[in-house]
Amino acid sequence: MTAKSEAFLRGVQLRHLRCLVAVAQERHLARAAERLALSQPAVSKTLAELETLAGARLVERGSAGRRGIQGFTAAGEQLLAHALRVLEALDAGAQALMPASGARLQRLRVGALPSVAPSLLPPALAALRERLPELQVQVHTGANASLLDALRAGELDLVAGRMSDPQLMAGLTFELLYTEPLALVARAGHPLAKLTPSVQDVLQHPLVVYGEGTIPRHHTESFLSGLGLRLPAHVTQTLDLSVARALLIRSDAVWFTPIGAAHDDLASGLLARLAVDTVGTEEPVGLLLRSDAEPSPARQTLVALLRESSAAQSRVARR
After folding, report:
1. Cα–Cα–Cα angle for 29, 30, 31, nearest 5°?
2. What is the DSSP string of 30-77?
3. CA quadruple 240, 109, 152, 177: dihedral sign
4. Which pLDDT belongs to residue 294?
5. In sequence order, which ranges of 132-260 are alpha helices (DSSP H)?
6. CA 211 to CA 145: how far, in whole Å?
7. Quick one: which H or E segment has residue 308?
């Protein structure tokens, strides 16, 4: 053991590790301070102490201000993984000391992309409820980057999402479930629903697209660019599937979306997929897990059920 590591072991305390985990979970020093019931200067001081003990910068502050967190350095990612294991082990130890009457509530925290959740999760969650009726399940939806941040920070147990940039995949594993193409979707009675329209025809109608920075938005713009076209500025951007769905039903808008997001409405005939070739827009969907996390029986059960659910979803995506 080196003198540096000995000094770290002598100086590091649980408050340092709790601070690091809170910063990772909140991505903001002020919000981390609220979570820890501390002042923001106290969190900054604790984080600085930990960086001094580690002999390396752990956190990259945001360019807009030091309270925002842009990301973790490689050293920060490594220490965060160990900090999570330490705190999880302490939590497990505390629960083991509790009397049987005070048994801990079992909980599973699932993250999913809005475009993935409606078709992939319900069958698996329904089967999970039958097998583990006492399990509390929390489902969180959001953009891929925020879900991966939450997974790496220990706030989620698994994510149904997509692979990302290598720096966001540190400490995570990805298992491919299926690929799904981008689809152009409109209400069943839409003027283009029973035609074979060109993309130029589609662009004459109001458009609904995903927000900037999302993978479906990137695929939408790349699809149009490959045809020498550009996404008009006057579009409606939303990650909320209920908003997109309601807008399509009430207007002649066309939605550029991964096909799974419209699965149920396409199956019922409420919405229709326009006959526009979108070959080449397929996106991989898979399970993301923390590589260092202990697999709980509940998580393992849901993973198996999601694999079964994905087989059905894969058949839909190929149609």
Report:
1. 95
2. HHHHHHHTS-HHHHHHHHHHHHHHHTS--EEEETTEEEEEEEE-HHHH
3. negative
4. 79
5. 144-152, 199-202, 215-226, 241-249
6. 13
7. helix 297-317
Give the CB-side neighbour count of residue 315, counting CA atoms within 13 A.
Answer: 6
Residues of the chain predicted below pLDDT 70? 62-67, 92, 94-105, 312-319
Q: What is the pLDDT of residue 9?
A: 84
User: End-to-end distance of the chain based on CA atoms, in angstroms?
Assistant: 59
pLDDT, position 254: 98
How far apart CA 218 and CA 222 sit, in angstroms, is 6
Q: 80 near 19, Cβ under 8 Å? A: no
Q: Per residue in 41-65, pLDDT tens?
A: 888 889 888 888 888 898 887 654 4
Question: Can you list the domains of the chain with their CATH numbers?
Answer: 3-89 (1.10.10.10), 106-179+284-317 (3.40.190.10), 182-281 (3.40.190.10)
Question: How many CB atoms neighbour CB 57 within 10 A?
Answer: 13
Contact 260/285 with Cβ under 8 angstroms? yes
pTM for the whole structure: 0.71
- Number of residues written out for the chain: 319
Where b means 16+ CB within 10 Å and e means fewer, 274-295 reads: bebebeebbbebbbbbbeebee
